[in-house]
Design a protein that fits this description.
The protein is an alpha+beta fold. It has nine helices and eleven strands.
Length: 290
Amino acid sequence: MFPLGFFGKKSKPTVQDPDAPHLFGPYSLHELINRGGSAEIWSATDQDGQAYALRRLLGNGTVEKSARKQFLHGCDVLEKIHGHPFIIGFFKHGKIDGVDFTLLERVAGSNLKHLITRNDPILGEFVGNILIDMALALEHMHEKGFMHLDFKPENVLVTSAADIRLVDFDLAQPLPKLPKRMPTNAGTPAYMAPEQLRQEPLDQRADIFSFGVTAYELLTFRKPFTGESPEAVLRKQLDEKHPIPPPRDINADIPIALERIILKCMDRDPAKRFPNTHVLVSQLQHELYV
């Protein structure tokens, strides 16, 4: 005879909470920092207790080929440009149980978008340093031969000491000697240069435009192009007849010279922007005395 327990109800399989702490190979994942469309970032430690930020692809290895290609491209770019104080630190990338991951510097802080949204006091105290350090990060990236092409507040981490780290290099492209049409116009439209939106040939000056939009938002707590719909915003962004509201009209504390720098960065004609980030950095340092 079978024991009575044999006929008991089967216990339902437990479904692990994907946001709960767990092991990933030799790494302990403690807290989910962010989850996007194809990847997520965790605070992690290795077996020696060393802290990292671990970024991995979603889908348990079944992610679309294009998303995996983009993820690995970002890893390769970062591996070539890291080693600068304002670029996120890189340690390694690889696969665990078929899932691609990259091991990054763990930064205690928030992204610039969050700080702007909550009007964090650190912005008022260190805004000059943040502006210059963001430009220095882009300058280093360009010197290493790459354009970021998705420069925006969400991709700038700010520590409690107001140090910055530029992150997310999945859309980066080699810097051409002459303006070149990119294979895609992926990016964040509100921060993209007109030539990038139109899929026209571009160079490092597209990043300078994005820097200008980010600086404008940092100093005024609003974007330079507004509208009732995303389409209306893009029309203003592309329309040369639509003037960009001077930042000092919104925040009179902005120095006149800094306003000129920001508006020059955002000129719709790339030939009228700063020719490169080296000149931009020099201008910022001269005017801000930092």
